[in-house]
Design goal:
Strand content: under 5%
Order of helices and strands: HHHHHH
Mean pLDDT: 87
Distance between the termini: 29 Å
Helix content: over 70%
Largest sheet: none
Number of helices: 6
Shape: globular
Number of strands: 0
Structural class: mainly alpha
Length: 100
C-alpha cells in the first residue's frame, strides 16, 4: 500500500466527531499530526515520505473540511495560494513544526 492510500484510508476511518475534535483547536491538530509523524518515523519513513503524507493530509483538509479556527484558516489560504513546490515546502515546514 502506498502512502497516499494509507493516508486516505486513515482519514476515511475518522468519524465526523473525531474530525471535529482534531480540528476544534490548533493544538489538537498539531498533536494529531505529531502523533502520525511519530508513527511514520517508527515505521522508518523518510523525511520526504513524511512530507508527501503531510501534503495528502493538507490537500484533503483544503478540499473537504472547513477551518475551525484562525490558524487553520491561514494554513488553508496559504495552501490554496501556493503552487505544488510551495505546498511541498509548506508540508516540510508543518513537519518541522510538529517534530520540535
Amino acid at each position: 500500500m502506498d502512502i497516499q492510500n494509507s493516508v486516505e484510508q486513515e482519514l476515511s476511518q475518522l468519524g465526523h466527531d473525531q474530525k471535529e475534535q482534531i480540528l476544534e483547536n490548533f493544538s489538537h491538530f498539531k498533536q494529531f499530526l505529531s502523533n502520525k509523524v511519530e508513527f511514520g518515523e517508527k515505521m522508518g519513513l523518510s523525511e520526504e515520505s513524511l512530507a508527501k503524507a503531510t501534503e495528502y493530509v493538507a490537500n484533503y483538509l483544503a478540499n473537504h473540511e472547513e477551518p475551525q479556527n484562525r490558524e487553520e484558516q491561514v494554513l488553508m489560504e496559504l495552501w490554496r495560494s501556493g503552487d505544488k513546490d510551495q505546498q511541498h515546502a509548506l508540508a516540510h515546514m508543518l513537519l518541522n513544526m510538529v517534530q520540535k
